[in-house]
Amino acid sequence: MDPLSCAELSTREVNAALAALPDGASARIVEPWGRHNLAVGLTNRIAVGIEGNAGYYIGGLCDGPDITVDGFVGWSVGENLMSGSVRIRGNASECAGASAHGGTIVIHGDASSRAGISLKGGTVLVGGDVGHMSGFMAQAGVLLVGGDAGDALGDSLYETVIYVAGRIASLGSDARIEELTADDVLTVKQLAEYAGFDHIDPENVKRVASARQLYNFDALKDQRY
Amino acid sequence: MCGIVGLHLKNQELHPRLGELLAPMLDCMTSRGPDSAGLALYRESADAVRCSLRSDEPIDWVLLGEQLATDLEVPVDVERFETGAVLSAAADEAALHAALRRIVPEVVLVGHGRAIEVFKDVGAPREICERYGIAKRSGFQGIGHTRMATESAVTTDHSHPFAPASDLALVHNGSFSNPASVRRRLEYHGVRFVTDNDSEVAARYIARQIAGGADLGDALRMVLKELDGFFTLLVATGTQFAVLRDSFACKPAVIAETADYVAVASEYHALAELPGIGEATVFEPTPEEVYTWTR
To answer: Looking at beta carbons, which residues of chain A come within 8 Å of B232?
Structure first.
């Protein structure tokens, strides 16, 4: 199909054209100019290339497609992603991969604060640094940081595991650094290979996980029905 | 939610285009603040002092200019709008203000100084820009705001920028949680307020710090100590342009810097059509870091 130009089409028109494509198709979005909500809510297995800098919620709520952005993106890229992938060949702003249930979000540059906040099973792979409060209340899934992590990393963490190759400014409440297992090394190796990050040494990352002092998953404990 | 925009032009050749570049940035932020909007524009200081005035009652601004000219014994230049005017005169600022208070006590002074002009109103940002001919205005910097009111009334007085001291203007995205206690302290020291807006508290707090000898960067570092809440602040003076985000940085901001300008907006797409944006260094301001640019 012809490239979808944001200079000519509304966001709804772009997303409707993408949603109408059959599985296996591919599409290009040009002149995004920071437009929000591009390629959201798609359930077909298509490839979408966004050629330039985009706005908020890119690839959010998707269940299937593979989306690539050649540029930087605003807040909440891949928010609530269910499956498929969103790859950013630049930096991402705050809340990258917020509440993602599945799929993979790859950010080649830096992510800002609250990366992987409330992650629910998705995978967030950041080549560069992440800002403060990344992994906040993350429940399941993996956050890999190829650079440094800002303050309060993994605050109120549930069962998401965070790997950090660089320095950690500070850990949040109930987050602790744990010993790296052979399984962790293999996981980091596979994730770094998938992302194309060749600067991460899988044996030299820090594993951050919950100390499990702030939550209790036993729903029946102390309850009367 | 609110939108903020700002442009600090380092390259003098861009000065004639200040309004032309800033008006579409403000319009782009309509989605963040459709109920009112405003701008503070700064141009080269001449000998004149300027007063940006507004009134709910009909005022004969030309007659007012003539009365002031007689009173102050200097020519007074008048630019009229529907509900306000900018007066300029080569006069003493305090004498001009005193004369205004005496002749037209009902008129609101929305901004004053040697470089600043303030235009603000209720309505769509694009219409406000057209009403005040923003696109044709020149200058070396400007800040603007699109408002979606969350904590006080939608009126022109409640809209931003707040410009409570000579050549000082502030726009704010966010909300403060302790403005009442800061306001009480300022009132105790004799500071008077026009509205119950929390952003006015921040503007008057900064004005008081500057009056006490602080430069804009120092004043903003004091804001971090004294004011609690969510904020991205964009503040300008006759010589400086500054950005500050609170420690949580929940309110967005993007800065684009080139050899020619520094541009700030709540969202990147407000910057996307600036000349040379492709070569700009684009970054998010770090929480609790005061960014200043000085002419």
So the answer is: none
